[in-house]
Inverse folding.
């Protein structure tokens, strides 16, 4: 087993990230327990002293296409209570059109960490065993109970504009195209 000590992070702008809190009841400097579950697994590391994410590695050669590809990292991780693991893209792969999908690891998850990748540009992207494929961020999360209530009494400027409404101040019809 390998214990990695996290770097203290500060949540900037709680309003821009409403699900995250700077709750001081949770240990922000405690170790993150990580272990290998495959002989070719590489333990995640930070690319620099100030890096927020831990680099995750592929344990075998893979080709990422427009279909979802599941990449095994060969590691397990114990996410600290009051946090979740957020699997995020690496900018170098994003520039090639590789998208990371479904990136939440709950604190009570105990399986192997896998990363869902997809080529959004249409061209297959070859990954080699040992390539860095994504980043893992450990983020505090508010775990309050859901309480049923009435609609908010205080109205915001956004009101009920809906998805994408802040980029559409004149309520013009927006048409979205999906690839099926």
């Amino acid at each position: 087993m390998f214990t990695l000590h996290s770097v203290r992070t500060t949540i900037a702008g709680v309003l821009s990230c409403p699900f995250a809190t700077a709750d001081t009841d949770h240990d922000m400097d405690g170790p993150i327990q990580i272990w290998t579950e495959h002989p070719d697994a590489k333990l995640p590391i930070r690319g620099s002293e100030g890096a927020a994410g831990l680099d995750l590695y592929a344990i075998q050669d893979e080709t990422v296409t427009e279909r979802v590809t599941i990449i095994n990292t060969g590691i397990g991780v114990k996410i600290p209570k009051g946090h979740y693991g957020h699997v995020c893209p690496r900018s170098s792969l994003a520039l090639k059109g590789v998208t990371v999908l479904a990136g939440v690891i709950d604190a009570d998850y105990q399986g192997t960490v896998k990363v869902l990748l997809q080529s959004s540009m249409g061209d297959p992207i070859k990954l080699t065993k040992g390539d860095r494929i994504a980043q893992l961020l450990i983020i505090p999360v508010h775990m309050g109970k859901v309480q049923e209530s009435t609609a908010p009494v205080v109205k915001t400027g956004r009101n009920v504009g809906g998805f994408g409404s802040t980029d559409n101040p004149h309520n013009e019809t927006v048409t979205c195209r999906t690839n099926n």
